[in-house]
Amino acid sequence: MAINFDEELIRVEFVIGEDVASETVSQNITVPNGKPDIERVIDVKADLLDVESNIEDGGVEVTGTIEAGVVYVGIVPEDEPQQPVHFFEGQLTFTNFFDFPEAEPGMNVFVDINIRRVSWDFNENAPRTVEVDVVLSKFVKLTEYQQITVVTDVTGIPEENIVEELLRIEDVIGENTVTSVITGRLELPPGKPPIERVLKVLAEIQDVTTEITNEGVIVEGDIFGGAMYVADVEDGDQPVHFLEDTIHFTETVDVAGAEEDMTVHTNLTIKRLSFDFIDEDTVEIDVVVQFFVKVTEPKQVTVITDIISDLVEIERELLRVEDVVGEDVVHETISSILNIPPEKPLAQRIIEPSARIVEYEATTDEDGVYLEGDIEAAAVYVGVAEEGEFLQPVHFVETPEGNYFNFDNFIDIPGTEPGMNTHTEVEVTKVNASLTDCEEVNGTQVCSAIEFDIVIRKFAKVTEFRQMEIVTDLVVISPAADDECPPSYVVYVVQAGDTLWKIARRYRTTVDALIEANPNIDPNNLQIGQKICVPRGIIEPKG
């Protein structure tokens, strides 16, 4: 029976290596000229900007900038307008080098950096300086796209002599990155006082959806925009307010070869945020968003890893891939109450609620991934003014360390086994807050607690790292008949599509050497079944 085989060309993401690291970035940031000294820090927020990675021989250098924003109560002379809440920004930088001995320029790198915690220290003896500490978690994965021809089936050899493996891969169709500026206006709703001065703006990407079209991907979503501002109000009224609105966006990213029913992976990153004060009712924000889109097609391929026979000569290649088991996304709303500590004034109004994932753990189990973690909730609020205090004070409250809000979920992914690898993403997508435990004091409602409703998105993808040698090509070796070739030669039987160049490449020799060993053949007219003598010194059959 003739020996035949099938082969398939696949494009895979060859895993070079991956690494994780944690770092605390600390730096003093200073109040700029023109702003008053600090009496009390209300809140400090931090955002990542301009994260860049550079692949070098032997590793990956990751650099970035953290923009820290400080909301504070300023020391204002009594003869000046009493609007004591101010805002300023400063930048912290970080650099890391991740060692990957096989790294080379031109490979692909995936970098995922998250801010785990922001803390600060203010010394009254240095009223223009705040020390900011930002805890970062960093994940770096280095890959290289490779097109590999794999042998998927062999006939003519007993099945028990063929070793095969089922490989589940994401066949990479293509990827692209584009950057776009999304502009929108935040309009004051009825009942809000007019804007005198904008303290700070923020933006978060929410509700991202994708649609694959021929040769491209349409990405849609919303940007939640917010602005904390000083209002133009009568003396004695609370001047700090918060304005929010949603901006819709649509972006088309070209990806050659993309078709409906394929799988799309997106990563949207806010690279920069700026604003213009239009008038007393309007703030315009410009959000620079980077869109990364990768289109893949899940495939299950049966690959041949070994053939035990002296009838064929096989070529192997090392394959290192992540075998995709499955993935899923779940959403959950966490509701919990934050009590205002006794040393802080009771609350009259919430200005801005926020929440951050502090830390979480992911564990693979039978048929799924178990996620558990902590959420830090915080709020800027208007407190009850003390006797003789001219303005209602602005205060900040957060869940104390060790008493964070907790969450846990089991994400069903059939086929998962303990010990498999999982890539997870947990993020806060929406925060609502309301005052609770309230009572009326001197005709004013005051509250001692804040109830949070926090929507979190959880994504889990389970993979199994596999390293194996796969058969990428084979040639049939026919035993020589008497006097067909000299004793020091092996007979090769010409297959469909063969040329002398292809045969020479397989046997790691040259066309001239084969012509010299077979003077009677026509190099331009090989026939299927024709036998060619190959010197034994070039190739040895594998048994």
Architecture overview:
The protein has four domains: 1-156, no CATH class; 173-298, no CATH class; 323-464, no CATH class; 480-535, LysM domain (Membrane-bound Lytic Murein Transglycosylase D, Chain A, Roll). It has two helices and 21 strands. The chain has helices at residues 500-506, 511-517; strands at residues 4-30, 38-56, 59-74, 85-99, 108-122, 129-155, 162-187, 195-213, 216-231, 240-254, 263-279, 282-307, 312-339, 347-365, 368-383, 394-398, 405-412, 421-441, 444-478, 489-493, 531-535. Residues 538-543 have low confidence and may be disordered. It holds the Pfam family SipL. GO terms for molecular function: lytic endotransglycosylase activity. This is DUF3794 domain-containing protein.
Write the layout of secondary structure elements.
Layout: E1 4-30, E2 38-56, E3 59-74, E4 85-99, E5 108-122, E6 129-155, E7 162-187, E8 195-213, E9 216-231, E10 240-254, E11 263-279, E12 282-307, E13 312-339, E14 347-365, E15 368-383, E16 394-398, E17 405-412, E18 421-441, E19 444-478, E20 489-493, H1 500-506, H2 511-517, E21 531-535
Antiparallel strand pairs: 1-6, 2-3, 3-4, 5-6, 7-12, 8-9, 9-10, 11-12, 13-19, 14-15, 15-16, 15-17, 18-19, 19-20, 20-21
